[in-house]
Every structure is written in C-alpha cells, then in structure tokens.
C-alpha cells in the first residue's frame, strides 16, 4: 500500500536528516530514507559524517592527541607519566560507541519530530500522477509518493586510477579510521583535509607517515601565511609532506604497497608502505537514484545540477549537501537542508556561502572564514591586516599551547571584516566569533571594542582586530 508524504528525503546524512527534522517542525508529513548499515545490518543514520567522517575522525584525533600529550606534554606541568601504552582496540571501541550514540540520537530525533524513517535505498520511478514516486529497496520494501523530494545522497571517496580501495592495504577514509594495528610506514596520497587529519592520528600513535601531494603548495585554499605556519609545525612533528609529486606506478603486494613517483624536482623516487590512504577528494553519490530515468539532470562533474536555491531540473525535487556544488562540509549540507525545508514551506530559507567556516582539526587547529589575503589582492581590494600571536596570550601560555596566530583582513576604507584566519589552540571554536561578526557585516573596530573575557584565547581575536588599526595592547 503506497504511502503519501509532503516531503521525502533520500539520504540521512547531515544534509538529509536535518532537512527532514526541519520539514517536520514546519508541519509537513515527512519521511527520510537512508541505507547506511551498522555492523549488525541495522540502520545507522548520520551518513558519512557520523559513520566514517567528522565524528569518528574527531574521536580518534582526540584520543591520539591525549596519547601524544601523555607521552611528553605533561612533564612541563610536573605530571610524570611513568609508563605509557596504547590499547588501540579500546580506542577504536570508544570511537565506535560515539558513532553509535550519534546514530541512536538521530533515530530518537526522528521519533521526537515525527519523521518516518525507512531503512533502505530510495530511487525515483516514473509516476502516473503529479506526485513523485520513490521506491525503497533493502531492509524495508515500500513505495512512497511525495509532493516534494529532497535528495541528500552525499559523496563517496575518489579512488586513484586503477587502484581500487580494498580497505586492507589501500584505504579510503573508512579503512583509515579502523586500522587494527598502527602501521610502521603509512603512505598517504593527497595532503588535503583527510590526509592531514588521518596522517596526524596515525603519526601520534607511532606510525612513520609520508604524505605525497601533487600540488606545489600546501593547503592552497588557506591563507598563505597560515599554510606556511602549518607546514612548519607539521614538519616539526615529523609529518613528512612531499609537495609537487607525480605519482607513477603503484603496486599492491601481499603486505605492502610500492609507489613510484617523481618528486618536486622531477627525480624518480620509490617508497614502500605497510598501508596506503588515498585521500584525493570525493565524488558526488548519485548511484542507484535512477536519476536518468526520470530526467534528473547532473552537471558535467556528476553533481546533481541545482540553482542557487537547491532546485533541481525536476519540479519540486531539491538537492543539498555533498551531492551538489559547493564545499563538501557537514555544516554547509545542514544549512542547505534547513533552507530547502523552509522554502518548501513557503518561507525564505537562505545560506550565506561567504560565511561558511573551514576547520582542519590538526594540531595546531586551522580555521578560517571569508577571503584570504591572496584573494583580496587578486580582487584588487584595498585592505588592511592585523595579526596577533598566541605566544602573547596569557591563556595560551597557561595551556602550554602558544603555537600560531589570529589574522584579520579588513576593507581599508569601510573596515568591514573580509576574512579571519586562525592557526592555533581551539581555532575551531574561536572562528565562530568571526563568522557571527561577518554575518552581521561587522568591522574590525566592532570586535576591537567588544569586551572579551580574561584570560581567554578569544582575547587573541580581539587583539588581532585591534592590530588592524595598529593598536594591539599586548604585542
Ligand atoms: P552524507 O553524509 O554522505 O550522507 C548521505 C547519506 O545518504 C548516506 O548515509 C548514504 O548511505 C545515504 N544514501 C545515498 N544514496 C542513497 C539512496 N539512494 N537511498 C538511501 N540512502 C542513500 N565535514 C565537516 O564539516 N567537518 C568535519 O570535521 C568533517 N570531517 C570529515 C572527515 C572525513 C574522514 C570525511 C570523509 C568527511 C568529513 N567531512 C567533514 C565532510 C562531511 O562528512 C560531509 O560534508 C557530509 O557528510 C555531507 O553530508 P550529506 O548529508 O550531504 O551526505
Ligand atoms: P581534499 O580536496 O581536501 O584534498 C585532496 C588533496 O589531494 C588535494 O590537496 C589534491 O591536490 C591532492 N591530490 C589530488 N590528486 C592527487 C594525485 N593524483 N596525487 C597526489 N595528490 C593529489 O580531499 P580529501 O582530503 O579527500 O577530503 C574530501 C573532502 O572531505 C574535503 O574536501 C572536505 O570537504 C571534506 N573533509 C572535511 C574535513 C573538515 O572539515 N575538517 C575533514 C575531512 C574531510
């Protein structure tokens, strides 16, 4: 017996589950279909982010940072750790339990908000009437009719040509988060966000890590000063990053992987690794949607083609998150999901792409919002900058973590904040102040005149804003 809904969401990642909750909050009958399975074959909503992305990676980053700190960082505080050992099994079990808490939390939220959840794969089918017909295959077999459909099917890791992931020796993010022993030599192709975060985890736990990056510069999307500081800090930690490489033949043996490559100078090199992570970007996931059959258009790169408000080529079919253009970030997916639910309800949902923060959870953390100095220069904007090092911040000294700085970029005439770049302790949290400020189109003077608690890391944000006008007080 077909079921009718106002809104059917396909995909239960951060884009889809949040869209479903918001649609239900707005009084629409809503269903969410997600196919992710836990190890027992049961539902595991939350998508890439919850299952093999944001959440488990941050759990392992935290655990591995504790391990590294216990090894050396506590001695300064007068805390002596006599013997230190790693129980990787327990560390991974902790990560899994955090994932499960998040899966269960989403199922609870669905119940609370009266979202009907279906476990299985949803696909479009030609319908005889105005409603969209969605078939569910998998644990649940159902046919749904929907006035509106939101596609939030996310993304999948991009494999290196002719090097499929086996998740034993050649790992995607899934395998990289579940290694049951610390490899002696870990190779990583791609010094992007995953390469740096996962490289940090396994280096802290004892692996010798080499990252091979095709581009001649590290973190090209970040402000150049931040990227330079990051490169310096990673090198100090022993995270070896080779830039400007060209990967040649890759041979997968019984227990190792050999990579032939040309280094930045064009010299032939060979490296043998126990495990290889391939993190060279992600691809939109439209497999199994039956998009072609119903005329749902994809763009030339395989993303679902949408307009600025996430409308697809089909009437009342919307798409959000990693499966459409724009940054592949969980919070971008969520914002689009909420905005679409509100548009369906006749409201004016909107997403400001200029104020989406970026965070890389390495140590030091890296976070930014808005334009880099390279961008404002290229755009010929007259600008001023102000920077403040954590070395001059009392709270950072008390923490024992004085790496990095905060940097403001402001319009020279209006003083409007154009970008804020942070590398250092708690950058992931500090960036929110800059996001709020930019959303309200604040000037650097506005931040400089706001009282910040003392002693706090956030004082470095205020001081960097003061520095735009060359009147930092503590540096
Ligand atoms: P997804 O999370 O990919 O969810 C899509 C869901 O749809 C999946 O559950 C999938 O199984 C399901 N699905 C697909 N097709 C169908 C179908 N036909 N029927 C039913 N279900 C279907 N972003 C951040 O902002 N911060 C981070 O710290 C961060 N860390 C990351 C770490 C790693 C290792 C990785 C890989 C990614 C990370 N990301 C991070 C990116 C983030 O995970 C994605 O941007 C986010 O998950 C996108 O959300 P989404 O809802 O668009 O898609
Ligand atoms: P990425 O786009 O961040 O980095 C890929 C890197 O691989 C780039 O530096 C690229 O130049 C390099 N590369 C591509 N082809 C190569 C080749 N043939 N040889 C060597 N290097 C090559 O992609 P990544 O790390 O796979 O992550 C995917 C996405 O997941 C990110 O773009 C991000 O949106 C999201 N993510 C976000 C996180 C966060 O917000 N903290 C954490 C992890 C992932």
TrEMBL record:
UniProt GO BP: 2-oxoglutarate metabolic process
Localisation per UniProt entry: Cytoplasm
Cofactor(s) of this protein: FAD
InterPro entries: Class-I_Pyr_Nuc-Dis_Oxidored, FAD/NAD-bd_sf, FAD/NAD-binding_dom, FAD/NAD-linked_Rdtase_dimer_sf, Lipoamide_DH, Pyr_nuc-diS_OxRdtase, Pyr_nucl-diS_OxRdtase_dimer
GO MF, one annotated term: dihydrolipoyl dehydrogenase (NADH) activity
Cited SUPFAM superfamilies: FAD/NAD(P)-binding domain, FAD/NAD-linked reductases, dimerisation (C-terminal) domain
GO cellular component: cytoplasm
Residues given in the record as NAD(+) binding sites: 190-197, 213, 281
Domain FAD/NAD(P)-binding: 5-337
Catalytic activity: N(6)-[(R)-dihydrolipoyl]-L-lysyl-[protein] + NAD(+) = N(6)-[(R)-lipoyl]-L-lysyl-[protein] + NADH + H(+)
Active site, per annotation: 454
Pfam families xrefs: Pyr_redox_2, Pyr_redox_dim
Transmembrane stretches, start-end: none
Keywords: Cytoplasm, FAD, Flavoprotein, NAD, Nucleotide-binding, Oxidoreductase, Redox-active center
Disulfide bonds: 49-54
Enzyme Commission numbers on file: 1.8.1.4
Domain Pyridine nucleotide-disulphide oxidoreductase dimerisation: 356-465
Chain sites annotated for binding FAD: 58, 122, 153-155, 322, 328-331
Cofactor note: Binds 1 FAD per subunit.
UniProt miscellaneous comment: The active site is a redox-active disulfide bond.
NCBIfam families (UniProt xref): lipoamide_DH
Similarity comment: Belongs to the class-I pyridine nucleotide-disulfide oxidoreductase family.
Protein's recorded name: Dihydrolipoyl dehydrogenase
């Amino acid at each position: 017996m077909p079921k009718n809904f106002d809104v059917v969401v396909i995909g239960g990642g951060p884009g889809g589950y949040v869209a479903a909750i918001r649609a239900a909050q707005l009084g629409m009958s809503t269903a969410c279909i997600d196919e992710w399975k836990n190890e027992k074959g049961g539902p595991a909503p939350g998508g890439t982010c919850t299952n093999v992305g944001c959440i488990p990676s941050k759990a392992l980053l935290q655990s591995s940072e504790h391990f590294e700190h216990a090894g050396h960082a506590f001695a300064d505080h007068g805390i002596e750790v006599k013997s230190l050992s790693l129980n990787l099994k327990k560390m991974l079990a902790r990560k899994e339990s955090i994932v499960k808490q998040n899966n269960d939390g989403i199922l609870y939220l669905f119940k609370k908000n009266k979202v009907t959840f279906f476990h299985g794969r949803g696909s479009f089918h030609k319908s005889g009437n105005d409603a969209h017909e969605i078939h569910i295959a998998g644990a649940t077999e159902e046919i749904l009719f929907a006035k509106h459909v939101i596609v939030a099917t996310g993304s999948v890791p991009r494999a290196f040509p002719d090097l499929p992931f086996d998740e034993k020796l050649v790992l995607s993010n899934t395998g990289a988060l579940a290694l049951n022993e610390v490899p002696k030599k870990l190779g990583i192709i791609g010094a992007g966000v995953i390469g740096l975060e996962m490289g940090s985890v396994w280096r802290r736990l004892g692996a010798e890590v080499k990252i091979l990056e095709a581009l001649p510069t590290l973190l090209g999307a970040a402000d150049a000063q931040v990227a330079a500081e990051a490169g310096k800090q990673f090198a100090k930690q022993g995270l070896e990053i080779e830039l400007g490489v060209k990967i040649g033949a890759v041979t997968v043996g019984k227990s190792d992987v050999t990579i032939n490559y040309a280094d930045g100078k064009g010299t032939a090199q060979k490296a043998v690794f126990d495990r290889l992570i391939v993190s060279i970007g992600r691809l939109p996931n439209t497999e199994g949607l039956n998009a072609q059959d119903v005329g749902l258009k994809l763009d030339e790169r395989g993303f679902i083609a949408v307009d600025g408000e996430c409308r697809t080529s089909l009437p009342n079919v919307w798409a959000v998150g990693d499966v459409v253009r724009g940054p592949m970030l969980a919070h971008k997916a969520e914002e689009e999901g909420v905005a679409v639910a509100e548009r369906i309800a006749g409201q004016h949902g909107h997403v400001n792409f200029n104020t989406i923060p970026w965070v890389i959870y390495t140590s030091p953390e890296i976070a930014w919002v808005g334009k880099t100095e390279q961008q404002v220069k290229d755009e010929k904007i007259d600008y001023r900058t102000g920077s403040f090092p954590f070395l001059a911040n009392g709270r950072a000294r008390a923490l024992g973590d004085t790496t990095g700085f905060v940097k403001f970029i402001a319009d020279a005439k209006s003083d409007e904040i154009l970008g804020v770049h942070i590398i250092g302790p708690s950058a992931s949290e500090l960036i929110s102040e800059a996001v709020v400020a930019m959303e309200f189109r604040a000037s650097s003077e506005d931040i400089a005149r706001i009282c910040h608690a003392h002693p706090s890391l956030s004082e470095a944000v205020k001081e960097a804003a003061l520095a735009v006008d060359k009147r930092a007080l503590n540096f």
